[in-house]
Design a protein that fits this description.
The structure is a homopentamer. By secondary structure, chain A is of the alpha/beta class. The first copy, chain A, has one domain: 3-Layer(aba) Sandwich (Rossmann fold), CATH 3.40.50. Helix content of chain A is about 45%, strand content about 20%. The first copy, chain A, is built from four helices and four strands, in the order E-H-E-H-E-H-E-H. In chain A, strands 2-1-3-4 form a four-stranded parallel sheet, sandwiched between helices. The longest helix of chain A is centred in the C-terminal third of the chain and has 25 residues. At the A-B interface, helix 3, strand 4 and helix 4 of A face helix 1, strand 2, helix 2, helix 3 and helix 4 of B. Chains A, B, C, D, E: Its EC number is 2.5.1.9. Chains A, B, C, D, E: One of its GO terms (cellular component) is riboflavin synthase complex.
């Protein structure tokens, strides 16, 4: 049996411990796996964390970022997103990017629920892609799935 | 006869199964071809999907993305677009990018029609470029062609 | 005599056949040259077209893009511009970028004139740089030259 | 005992000598280390400074940038951020990015306090990551830590 | 004595001959140096000009760009800035970027003064970095230096 290694990169900036949630879900979805965690200060540090996790042998990585409310935070989100995409295309490895924006909800409870739901669903997505490859999610293609919110659904 | 391999990368975020449409069109336009499909959660995962399809031998790829309405979705679109362009220039392979923006139309029916038309027309474009090379579309250069909408036309 | 090869990359999205204009000008300015043309659907496909033209031996390339009016079109312009710059710096070859924005003029006739003027002037620029090198334009440095509009002029 | 080398890159544009602060903190946190400093004019010069520090053997780098108030300054911030992320992912080394925006506070005293607090806290973060690796900050993951401001705190 | 080679890249779009100013200052500041000049149409051509100057042996480069007033010009500025940063981090060479924005001043005389001051001061910065290395500017770190305007000063 091939044992898979997953990377989990999270931040101290985040207000929810999404890294812990991701680890629990991955462990449940793929018991024959190892998990490496890497914690950095903020989202702009996530690309190098993902890169170092892949360098160390991870087959795929999930990053768990939290973004503030200002326009500058959004530029940081853009820069980090570009970086995470480049880590992926230069290594041909998935880095599933969970991001929660502080202005997605007006109260902290809703924000917490978004973070938990998004971290859980994308952890499952990562395991499916790493374990079963590029057709693992095809059954759900075009179905309007959402993470952090209820599904939008298909309009086919 | 040289057999071509096409890659089709789509998402579970999309509300229309554009991957299926692309496969049908490619099969019709180029019966002597193989098609590989790769489904990912969202647009920011499309660049690595395209890269992995090219790694596996695809001569060209079509990606089928769906983008939400918020400014953050637009930044994600920008990051994904930059990534898709880099996959292309680092591999010298075409990755034709079909993107539908949820705010392109006010009702779902119109949105669905845009998605179908765009996916179909760009699938034909991809096959033409891969089968017949850089002059395959030259007859239509400057003609104001549109995908998802009716053509704007030439003003020559 | 060294024969130069120029690449001309244009789109079917464009409403003016700028590729044809560029070819005419290059042929007149540098009769001892070959020209390769590559036509793609839209601006986001231009970076890979330029890359493939350089791969095939072109000493320099001119790309002729047309951009729509929406904010999304502008993000596509930004992504394409970054891609075109990376093609250049990774190959050390010039890719002169002619872009016409649909909202540069209120009527089609003016837009057509902008497109023609810009394509012509930049075709001359490309030939000068490829034939005569980095000092070919130095006499005009700081002169406030414009393409598509009348020159702004020097304020020295 | 392995001796670590830290890089400190700062600017003449900055209105607070954050480089000096970073050096003091690093020296205190990791007495068995060497520190190299590199001063450049502004934020857009920081990526190459970080790259040169890593080329010269630094195990990790902290950059200390200051950004003006205009939209153009913000685009420069975005370009610099993308560059800093690419230095990291192409070298697999951390470059912790301290940035102070001139419009973060209305008076100079507050701005100075933000700069000092951010430089100090991120210097500690850098040392922890370089000395103790990717789990050094895990105890604080999801705790809503802030640099330059008081912590937002966890909402778990 | 080691002879240094400086690159000067400027544009025909610029309304002030900043390349000439840079050459004069560099010659005065570092008489034992050679200077190569490369003139291109506009800012988006500057990254490849800088790359070609470095390819030809320049130890450092100054680019002198001029940017129009529209939002599109600003996106071009952003793309060019990202490109200039990548030239630097992929070659580990400084490319000091002088940019003048047409909307920085209301009258041409002020604009001209900004351009001259910025070109002069950054030419001196380049020479210092190339001749004396990463500590050449450290004495001025955090001093709030400005180019094109009077210094903001330290708030330490």
């Amino acid at each position: 049996m091939i044992e898979r290694i997953y990377g989990v990169a999270d931040t101290t900036f985040s207000r929810v411990n999404m890294g812990e949630i991701a680890i629990k879900v991955i462990r449940k979805e793929d018991p024959d796996s190892q998990i490496s965690r890497y914690t950095v200060p903020g989202i702009k540090d996530l690309p190098v964390a993902a890169k170092k996790l892949i360098d160390s042998g991870c087959n795929g990585v999930i990053t768990l970022g939290w973004v503030g409310k200002t326009q500058l935070d959004k530029y940081s989100y853009l820069a980090a997103s570009i970086g995470l995409i480049f880590v992926q295309i230069s290594t041909s490895r998935h880095v599933i990017d969970v991001t929660v924006h502080e202005d997605e909800a007006e109260d902290e409870e809703t924000l917490r629920e978004i973070a938990i739901d998004r971290a859980k669903k994308h952890s499952v997505n990562l395991v499916k892609l790493i374990k079963d490859g590029g057709n693992a999610l095809t059954e759900m293609a075009g179905k309007g799935l959402r993470q952090g919110y209820s599904n939008a659904g298909s309009i086919d």
